[in-house]
Amino acid sequence: MDQSIITYLTENREKHLAELKDFLAIPSISSLPEHKEDVQKAANWVATALEQIGMENIKVHPTKGHPVVYGEWLKAEGKPTVLIYAHYDVQPVDPLHLWESPPFEADIRDEKLYARGASDDKGQGFMHVKALQAILETTGTLPINVKFLIEGEEEIGSPNLPAFVEENKELLSSDIIVISDTSMMERGKPTICYGLRGLCGVQIDVKGPKGDLHSGLYGGAVQNPIHALVEIVNSFHNKNGQITVEGFYDQVAELTPAEKEAYLALGIKDESFINQLGVTEMFGEDGYTTLERTWVRPTLEVNGIYGGFQGEGIKTVLPSEAHAKITCRLVPDQDPDTIVELLQAHIKAHTPSGVTVEVSLFDKGAPFVTPFDHPAIQAAGRAYEKVYNVPTSFTRGGGSIPIVATFDQILEKPVVLMGFGLPDENFHAPNEHFHLENFDKGMETLCHYWFELEDSL
Amino acid sequence: MDQSIITYLTENREKHLAELKDFLAIPSISSLPEHKEDVQKAANWVATALEQIGMENIKVHPTKGHPVVYGEWLKAEGKPTVLIYAHYDVQPVDPLHLWESPPFEADIRDEKLYARGASDDKGQGFMHVKALQAILETTGTLPINVKFLIEGEEEIGSPNLPAFVEENKELLSSDIIVISDTSMMERGKPTICYGLRGLCGVQIDVKGPKGDLHSGLYGGAVQNPIHALVEIVNSFHNKNGQITVEGFYDQVAELTPAEKEAYLALGIKDESFINQLGVTEMFGEDGYTTLERTWVRPTLEVNGIYGGFQGEGIKTVLPSEAHAKITCRLVPDQDPDTIVELLQAHIKAHTPSGVTVEVSLFDKGAPFVTPFDHPAIQAAGRAYEKVYNVPTSFTRGGGSIPIVATFDQILEKPVVLMGFGLPDENFHAPNEHFHLENFDKGMETLCHYWFELEDSL
């Protein structure tokens, strides 16, 4: 890659930061109806920015909610096409009094840019625009074809994106999808997350007597809905931390030896988790390490349980109802629909007599993994290494990013998560910020990546 | 018994009701500090009423809270002595707008006396005073010796009564204790409750990680406090409804064949419970009937459970804490202290690794039973039958009345519960009332009882 690209980025740094501050000044909070116009304004800002760097076929697509911005540059004939996803909407800012500088007046302190959206995700989206501009202005062309898809509803769960992607499959077709909306493991440690867990969940509502009963008058003679719920919930795991729902593990892909080795090489010890979380010990499925348990093994967790009296002291009630909220984190190749069916069958089989049980379903998301040795993943690793001068960590994530599964499933192309945030940058919280070190190095990395990709795919 | 006593009651009915209305007009709500003077006023009213019928040694004893009123008549040499307990305090009256007539302006509609305290317990206490007056004024003497103990803190759990009883054992010594503060099974069916269950309880607080965790990032690698709590709670019972806490049943007195037969003779069918409670079936300890399960078998019920997210939908949290509130109903000869120790040992033995558990204790109360065939119980049965002309039902209660256990344990004398309320008389609720049928028949029954007792003990 031509050194002049880096020089361009260095020379235009102040200009870029000023532009980003403009972008960050728009309070595009997607969850608040009173900011609807601001969200539209941010969409227009993005469209203009894409136009200014030479993207074409730019359109602000309306949806039932906030718009999706599209733009493309497809002049690299015979070269791979990359779909870049980002979002221009942000989280609310309350509690406002905890912010050290106003959330929509970006402020640089100690080489960190403070503003709502600085890291999640306006800052990271903006880097993509400027990295491509640097290559275009310096070399007059790009080593790859590019399509931008920048939405305005990520912070409210992207309710309209799946339909948009489904309806625009052709427009969005590409060889790979690149998303910069995640974090590096720690400062100076470039990280590519190549897999995420999926999600499905159920709520269990146990009903017993038609009203709360006096535990003295009826205790011992009526099935207590809490007892019944506890019996069901306790049946989900055995003492070894394994999930006992029949068939639950049937579709789970086993970890490859190469991946197992890569995780061990990260050198993460249980002691650091124990200290950080304040637990007496780590606990989970027998035969797996903590990283494996959170990255490549499925889970079933009770997120909430409630029934009866919760106040101070005692109320001798035998309650009418008891409830539990349960989610499973899923790994390839588990299918959320299948797992939900297994859960329902398990609950039915383990419901004791004397109560009725209703099961309702929560939103589902498929697990995702881009093969560890995929050329697009390996090329991203090399790009990072050129800038950060340390080996790239290849990780998977325990959480779920619904849009990733959306792309994976609808567009059926590898997704590459190249995140430049840091875990302590207060996403969704007061004083969100972005380390400018990663703003600079991140853009350099992206430039390298496009050249690495040129001949890799 | 001389018929003139009954005639006296009939002739003075209007006068008695007017006096009772005076008593009911005093808003002696023990739980509300602003009614402290009213409670004192009610105590003085009781003292005056006792004086007017010829009781002696009357004293309004101050306590740390509301006063205890004492009075006695001990001129029946060689005859049994009865301690009569009642309470002159009442429950609050909110929500006031649900009352059809003002709670402290007693109103008779459809032969029911509506007022707060009409049934619980001013009305029933007043009946004792007037029944004795009827005998005294008609015959000039009493067939028994009498001591009155009328307190003003029953509705707040009698916090100062145990100490008063302990300090005044000599003053309160008697052959039996009679309490009229319970209900008949149904209209026209006189009932003597000769046993009540005791109570003890624990709160289980499970602590895991120091803060709530993201179930995606840490799910599967940390012991979930809800899972741990559910494992503990589920260990308390087996599938047959039996309590599996080691030693739990060791002190339980077995039901005598006579009692078993008496309960069957009540002819109460599970169907009526099922309809009333809206359950699909009755459920409990194998080998016992519903009445046995609620009257003579101990229980362990979870009264409340809570941890994690309880709102609409889902929050993928792995919570830091989970809690359960548990009470046991105890039967003779279980000792609450022993049972609490067994519970603590059981919880300790069933706590899974990865969490810490704290157990805190709730108030305890001993179970009580006056032997079914005790002469004082049988005499009470005969007294009822003389007035109601149907066989008396001998029952036990599943609940706990702490003062009963207090008397049983400190004074060590048989307690006879002669209740004249009905289950639908809205104790503690708006439109509390008292069926005047039982006001009239109840006083007659009490008069008969004192004569039945004269030669029974």
Can you tell me about this structure?
The structure is a homodimer of 457-residue chains. With 457 residues, the first copy, chain A, is of the alpha+beta class. In chain A, the strands form four sheets. In chain A, strands 1, 2, 3, 6, 7, 8, 15, 16 and 17 form a nine-stranded mixed sheet that branches. Chain A has a four-stranded antiparallel sheet with strand order 11-13-9-14, with helices on one face. A three-stranded antiparallel sheet of chain A has the order 4-5-18. In chain A, a hairpin with a 2-residue loop joins β4 (107-109) and β5 (112-114). Chain A is built from 15 helices and 18 strands. Chain A has helices spanning 3-11, 13-24, 36-52, 122-139, 161-167, 169-172, 215-218, 225-234, 257-265, 270-277, 290-295, 336-349, 375-388, 402-411, 436-454; strands at residues 56-61, 68-73, 81-87, 107-109, 112-114, 145-151, 176-179, 191-196, 198-207, 213-214, 299-308, 317-318, 321-330, 356-361, 368-369, 393-397, 415-418, 433-435. Chain A has two domains: 3-196 and 367-454, Aminopeptidase; 198-252 and 298-361, Alpha-Beta Plaits (2-Layer Sandwich), CATH 3.30.70.360. Chain A is 35% helix and 21% strand. The model of chain A has no long low-confidence stretch (mean pLDDT 95). The longest helix of chain A has 19 residues, at 436-454. Chains A, B: Keywords: Hydrolase, Metal-binding, Protease. Chains A, B: Its EC number is 3.5.1.18.
What's the helix count of chain A? 15
Residue windows where pLDDT falls under 50 for at least 5 positions of chain A:
none
- The average pLDDT value of chain A, as a whole number, equals 95
How many domains comprise the coordinates of chain A? 2
Main β-sheet of chain A: number of strands, strand sense, barrel status? 9 strands, mixed
Q: Based on DSSP secondary structure assignment, what is the total number of beta strands of chain A?
A: 18
Radius of gyration of chain A: 25 Å
Q: Identify the CATH architecture of the largest domain in chain A.
A: 3-Layer(aba) Sandwich
Instruction: Supply the CATH superfamily name of the largest domain in chain A.
Output: Zn peptidases
Q: Please report the two chains with the greatest interface, counting residues with C-beta closer than 8 angstroms to the partner's C-beta.
A: A-B, 80 and 79 residues
Q: Indicate the overall shape of chain A.
A: globular
CATH fold-level label of the largest domain in chain A: Aminopeptidase
Organism (chains A, B): Pseudoneobacillus rhizosphaerae
EC number (chains A, B): 3.5.1.18
InterPro entries (chains A, B): Bact_exopeptidase_dim_dom (IPR036264), Cyt/Met_Dipeptidase (IPR051458), Peptidase_M20 (IPR002933), Peptidase_M20_dimer (IPR011650)
GO molecular function, one term (chains A, B): succinyl-diaminopimelate desuccinylase activity
